[in-house]
Design goal:
It comes from Actinomadura logoneensis. GO terms for molecular function: oxidoreductase activity, acting on the CH-OH group of donors, NAD or NADP as acceptor. The chain has one domain: 3-Layer(aba) Sandwich (Rossmann fold). Helices cover about 45% and strands about 15% of the residues. The chain contains 9 helices and 8 strands. Strand 7 and strand 8 form a beta hairpin. Helix 1 packs across helix 9, helix 3 runs parallel beside helix 5 and helix 4 crosses helix 8. It is globular, with a radius of gyration of 17 Å. It starts with a strand and ends with a strand. Bound molecules: NADP nicotinamide-adenine-dinucleotide phosphate.
């Protein structure tokens, strides 16, 4: 029996990933910062709710204690993420980037991922087949962002791609350190969810595909990679 925790599972790609992994027979903990939204989602999914705000030490530590007491963890999907938008939806660019804005995005996308990973590493290290999936983005790619004319180079935001580039390096460094684990960064593709005000052209079913694939990766699967459904991506 595989036990899996997904952060930010109350909606979007996290919710769809939870649905698919429940279907695949995993015991799924649906992490959500808001208890009402989280409980509702977990009940719909047939998952277990765990309150988990990735920006909050006490919340993450309590979640780790509860899951440890229930028997441990095999798979961690670091999915929770935010984009920096003005209330009217506008994404500020480099000229407007402030240290505070960058810190806010990093607080969830980077420090949150590290906080959760650090708290759950002792549980994962006791698993026979530990897996971590870090939900990155195509916008994390330095190669693509350096290529004139790509959507990656013309994307207006800076904080979000920078945070996901940090997620990619964290993925590689964790993978270097824990070769016994499968630790990969994935790009779901541009998917219609709240994070992009449903502008994405893919469905959540399509977007969750690579997350599910890497969350169910066996011991022979690659580790330390950055990929989408079609294979490895340029860093
Ligand atoms: N959609 C795309 O095109 C796309 C492409 C590439 C990568 N991604 C990545 O995919 C992941 C999922 O995004 P999505 O598209 O599914 O967006 P979404 O529908 O906005 O979902 C984001 C999830 O993260 C949760 N979250 C935000 N801050 C949190 C915190 N501090 N603690 C715990 N949970 C928190 C949200 O919870 P609340 O409901 O409480 O806000 C929500 O459950 C993100 O990492 C995103 O960067 C998305």
């Amino acid at each position: 029996m595989t036990t899996t925790l997904i952060t930010g599972a109350n909606k979007g790609l996290g919710y769809e990933t939870a649905r698919r992994l429940v279907e695949a027979g995993h015991t799924v903990y649906a992490g959500a910062r808001d208890p009402e939204r989280g409980r509702r989602a977990a009940a719909e999914l047939g998952a277990r709710f765990v309150q988990l705000d990735v920006t909050d030490d006490a919340s993450v530590e309590a979640a780790a204690k509860a899951i440890e007491a229930d028997g441990g963890l095999d798979v961690l999907v670091n999915n929770a993420g935010i984009e920096w938008r003005e209330p009217d939806g506008y994404i500020p660019g480099a000229a407007e980037l402030t240290a505070d804005a960058l810190r806010t995005v990093f607080e969830t996308n980077v420090f949150g991922l590290v906080r959760v990973t650090h708290a759950f590493l002792p549980l994962l290290r006791r698993s026979a087949a530990p897996v971590i999936v870090n939900v990155s983005s195509g916008l994390a790619s330095l190669s693509k962002a350096s290529e004139p004319g790509t959507p990656h180079s013309t994307y207006p935001g800076v904080a979000y791609p920078t945070s996901k580039a940090a997620v990619n390096m964290l993925t590689v460094r964790y993978a270097n350190t824990f070769p016994e684990m499968r630790i990969n960064a994935v790009e779901p593709g541009y998917t219609a969810t709240d994070i992009n005000q449903h502008a994405g052209h893919q469905t959540v079913e399509e977007g969750a595909e690579i997350i599910v694939r890497m969350a169910t990766a066996g011991p022979d699967a690659p580790t330390g990679t950055y990929r989408d459904v079609d294979g490895p991506l340029p860093w």
